[in-house]
Amino acid sequence: MPGLTVAIDVGGTKLVGALLDGDGIRHRVERATPGSPGAADPGSAALRDLANELAGSAGTGEPVAAVGVGCCEYVSDDRLTSREVLAWTEQPAAWLPAVFSGARVVVESDVRCGLLAECRLGAARELGSAVFVSWGTGLSSALLLDGAIWSGSRGRAIALGELPGPLGLNLEQFASGAGMAARWGAASGRPGRGTRALVAAADHGESTALAIAATAGQALADALAALVHLLDPERLVLGGGMGCADTAARRALLRHWERLGNPAELVVAELGPDGPLLGAGLAAGWRG
Length: 288
Description:
alpha/beta, 12 strands, ROK
């Protein structure tokens, strides 16, 4: 597509935006997502600031042809259909064209953007079937079936975290970064410490953090094994901040996966945490 493509990845922990050209990322912006899950980025204020900054960086020399936005919500037909993380008040597709002078805007689920990027540029190239797992602050997945990304009848075929987990929790509450941090805070009597603190404590051998990381990895491995039994994909691709980093939780997942002896291959995303960002650009027409 002639002109620049803007790609934006809106997550529960951070917002990342980039100007993409034929050579890749020309300019990148990153900032924290303000607010707590369910009330993050009220009114999309941080997203608007990031979009305006990217528009200013693009300047007037080369127009922005398209904008791709990957959001950590349910999405159908370029519309957000949930408010589980973000406290948005207007649809991004309604106001972003004014920021980027009428550019075409595509809005998609961030996990499907991650899968798209791995299909075009990464670990799911030339596959007919795959499962992409975004393991980070939250937990979700996307499916490649018969060479096409399956969105579901209502755009909701991403809800890996809604599956039942141990202790009466769902899988996201038990095994996501935020879920592990919450369990660690409750067990230690020190609530409010985040995912990074949990990961650091586990990697330094703190017993409670290490046990929580280990049980999270095992629970996620069991859930992925169930997906393999149900769907029989060629490969599972592990993405997201937790999935791409060498942590105690991921090591526990991989150990348990080996013990389970599953026929499907489990690999780490080739594009790392930037997969959803690049996938947002690809969804908007960037050629990679």
